[in-house]
Amino acid sequence: MSVVERQEWDVVVIGAGGAGLRAAIEARERGARTAVICKSLFGKAHTVMAEGGIAAAMANANEHDNWQVHFRDTMRGGKFLNQWRMAELHAQEAPQRVWELETWGALFDRTKDGRISQRNFGGHEYPRLAHVGDRTGLELIRTLQQKIVSLQQEDKKETGEYESRLKVFQECTVTRILKDERGRVSGVFAYERETGRFFVIQAPSVVIATGGIGKSFKVTSNSWEYTGDGHALALLAGAPLLNMEFVQFHPTGMVWPPSVKGILVTESVRGDGGVLRNSEGKRFMFDYIPDVFKEKYAQSEEEGDRWYEDPDNNRRPPELLPRDEVARAINSEVKAGRGSPHGGVFLDVSTRMPADVIRRRLPSMYHQFKELADVDITAEAMEVGPTCHYVMGGIAVDSESAAARGVPGLYAAGEVAGGMHGSNRLGGNSLSDLLVFGRRAGWHAAEYAAAQAFERPEVSDMQIDTAAAEALRPFSAEGPTGSEDDGPRPPENPYTLHQELQQAMNDLVGIIRREGEMEQALEKLADLRVRARRAGVEGHRQFNPGWHLALDLRNMLLVSECVARAALERTESRGGHTREDHPTMDRKWRNINLLCHLADPTGGLAATDPERGQINLVRETTDPVRQDLLALFDKEELVKYLAEEELYQ
Ligand code: FAD
């Protein structure tokens, strides 16, 4: 039996991005002793990289904006597959969450009359993104961290200890969520990255806020820690994942030089007037406005350009269509041989804005291109192409409480939770999502934990031993048996397996999908699963990135199988899921959710044959959208989206 340190808290939050920190603040303010665990340094999460802004209908830049318009835009962006109650709560509560940030010290850019400035973004009818230049996420995280420090100072005054009620465990990775014999959450098993030491935090409530899955794809804007851990932890704990086929490929990532391929070029570049051109100099987006959006977008360059000055009397340019549309258009231009020298298209602000305005409004982009690609964006166009950016699919949650389905005590918020964005997320809606639902998750997790006060779930030694053995397996892994002459072969290298996985997902389940290729992907995943069981590492547990990756592979393989299976099942194109063999949106699929469950309900992977799929897919009909919300749309528009039976109702 291993000796593993145990600590007792009320709520454990996994992840210290915006969702995790907002949840932790809420839980602590509601009286729960709260522990936050994060894989990287405190303050380094995707949230900090968010550039464009937080979408909230505050009506500062256009008085016609309100939560109903924001709700409508979000549903249109998600092609009506959004969990509509989440989209409603999100649109209603986002402004309060932004104002609250300001009271906690956030310094947003201002309008001339001193209100929080709001900028345009794709799919949003009005300028709606509260921002701080193109470093909004940095200010958001700084503010939430500052709030945490102020709460810790209060605790010091009352209890004599800063970390008595709110403590951050940084550079620690959770590998398992633990449950008691009644199926309730009882805590988490984690290791410290620096020392390799294992520890357990016992708690009745766990909030998963681990962000995205981008590292399963080769070209991605995501950084190293986004290996789908939270998605996999939930699956292994018995909670289903929802609509995992919907992966967002952001239209504008850097394409050159190769070492920075995939790094994000913020949508604010287009929101502030940047235009997309092909190698012939043509503003090609006018050729790609889909029927459902025809009436809302400018049909000529002149009208599109007039919109920046007079949005009430002109329609917006098609560069500001939702991301899925723009990404597909760029992909088509490159495929047709009209791409830029390095396989993207041109994104130009240099001919649209004076150099000093570019440097002021887009400082990070200016430096990013100057330093990484030696391109001066005030004088020349950028080369850009699609990059895997965000996952709309995620843990199936209750809209009000953020409770994960089927596992008492488990909650999820932020990018790791599914449903809110339907088949495609609008830019800016992630930062608002994580504030709105981070708060809700922290609130309900704290209430649930308080309700368990007299019957706290226990963690058994056996569970800890099993989790420890699983984490240690890469140190004793053996390669496949060779022939008698060559003896046993060395274990598999986790880096090689990771590269093969990323290549397969990029090539076979990427931006444009085909049945045969997805079947090939599933075969490749089966092969990788078998080999990943033999992934081995040398050395010891002190800071050993090869070991960490070997553990992350389990998560990436599970999540990739969910994406591939669901993508194969959904025989239509919608939002972030494009099938070349089923190129149109099919109303029959409008009210169908695909749920991924772990095939082995005990949560064990070791016992199952890795060659066999580990995921069962279940179809589920969605709840009908409430009548008063449907009334926000024109009937003609609803006809384009809703399934036949829904229209009759
Ligand atoms: P994250 O901020 O991703 O944080 C996840 C946390 O979980 C991290 O602390 C990580 O270390 C931790 N973690 C992961 N696995 C484990 C584990 N096993 N154990 C312990 N901890 C773990 N959205 C917008 O709305 N507007 C924008 O302008 C915008 N710009 C973006 C720019 C870039 C470059 C990127 C990559 C994304 C952008 N997004 C934007 C998307 C948005 O930033 C993310 O979707 C959002 O920040 C996710 O927040 P989160 O709190 O869910 O998770």
Automatic annotation (TrEMBL):
Residues 476-495 are annotated as: Disordered. Pfam families: FAD_binding_2, Succ_DH_flav_C. It comes from the Bacteria. Residues 498-595 form the Fumarate reductase/succinate dehydrogenase flavoprotein-like C-terminal domain. Residues 10-431 form the FAD-dependent oxidoreductase 2 FAD-binding domain. Keywords: Flavoprotein, Oxidoreductase. InterPro entries: FAD-dep_OxRdtase_2_FAD-bd (IPR003953), FAD/NAD-bd_sf (IPR036188), Fum_R/Succ_DH_flav-like_C_sf (IPR037099), Fum_Rdtase/Succ_DH_flav-like_C (IPR015939), SdhA/FrdA/AprA (IPR030664), Succ_DH/fumarate_Rdtase_cat_sf (IPR027477). NCBIfam families: PRK07803.1 (NF005866). This is Fumarate reductase/succinate dehydrogenase flavoprotein subunit.
